C-alpha cells in the first residue's frame, strides 16, 4: 500500500484547496470550509467520491495549517517539480544525442541519489504526519465542528420555517376592538399605548388603527407564538378592556375569541410558566403606570 506521504505527493494540496502556495493559515481554513462543506458526507450520503474528496481536503488542512509539516511538504513538492523538469530536459537531450555508457551511469547515480533523498524526505513527512495524528488534529476537529454546527443551524431554520407557517399563510394578524367614547379620547388607546401593550409578547411587524371605524385596529406579529400569547393574555386597560381575535394565520385547533387569564393550554413547560408570570407582572405594572398617566392628564385638563 502507498504510504501517506507518497499519497500526499500524488496530490497538489494547494490546487486541491484552490489557493496560492504562499496562502496564510487563515486563507487555508477559509478555503477548506468552502470546499469541504459542499462535499461533506452528511450532505452527500450516497456519493463515495464526495467522502474521498472530503478526506483529502481534511488531510490538506492538517498538513497546511501545521508549520513543520507544511515546510516538509513544500520541500518535497519542490524537489518533485525539479526532478520532473530534469527528466523532461533529459528526454529532450536523449532525442538529440545518443547517450554513451558513461552518461547512462551518471544518470543512474543521479536517480539513485534522488530516490534516496525522496525516501529520506518521505520518512520525515511520515514522522510529521504521525506527530499530527498523535497530537490529535485540533484544526481539523475545530473546522468539522463548525461545519456540523452550520449544517445543524440550516436544518433548524428550515424546520422553524415550517413550524412558523405550516400552511404558508404568511404572518399572523389579530383584530383589536375596544369601546370609544364621544369625547374624542379614542377610549384611552393610541398607537403607542397599543404597541406598549403588545410588544412584550414578541416582535410587532405592523399596527394599523382603522380610520373608518373608531375603536378597531389590526396588529401583525412576526411569530405565531407571540400572536397566541397576545390573544390569550392581553386584557388592555382596566377601565376599557380590549377584545382580541384572530384575523389571519390562526393555527389549526385554536378556535374562539380571546379568553384573558385562561391560557393554561399554552403553558407547556416550567420555563414558559415562569415567563408568563413575569409577563403578567410587567403587564400589571404597565397598566398602573398608564392609569396614573391618564389620571394626571385628566387633572391637568380640569385646571
Helical coverage, percent range: 55-70%
Distance between the termini: 100 Å
Q: Say what oligomer this is.
A: single chain
By CATH reckoning, the class of the domain at 173-248 would read Alpha Beta
List how many beta strands DSSP finds. Answer: 6
The rounded Rg comes to: 36 Å
Integer average pLDDT:
83
Coarse structural class: alpha+beta
By CATH, the architecture of the domain at 173-248 is named: 2-Layer Sandwich
**Any idea what the CATH superfamily of the domain at 173-248 is called?**
RRM (RNA recognition motif) domain
> Largest sheet, order of strands side by side?
2-3-1-6
Shape: rod-shaped
> Could you tell me the strand content as a percent range?
5-15%
The residue ranges in which pLDDT falls below 50 over 5 or more consecutive positions are 261-268
Could you give the order of the helices and strands?
A: HHHHHHHEHEEHEEEH
> What does the largest sheet look like?
4 strands, antiparallel
Structure in words:
The chain is α+β, with helices and mostly antiparallel strands and 303 residues long. Among the domains are: 1-65, DnaJ domain (Helix Hairpins), CATH 1.10.287.110; 173-248, 2-Layer Sandwich (Alpha-Beta Plaits). 61% of the residues lie in helices and 9% in strands. The protein has helices at 4-10, 13-17, 25-38, 48-64, 67-96, 101-135, 138-164, 191-198, 224-233, 270-302, and strands at residues 173-177, 204-209, 216-221, 236-237, 240-241, 243-248. The strands form 2 sheets. A 4-stranded antiparallel sheet has the order 2-3-1-6, covered by helices on one side. Strands 4-5 form a two-stranded antiparallel sheet. Helix 3 (25-38) packs antiparallel against helix 4 and helix 5 (67-96) packs antiparallel against helix 6. The longest helix is centred in the middle third of the chain and has 35 residues, at 101-135. It is rod-shaped, with a radius of gyration of 36 Å. The termini are far apart.
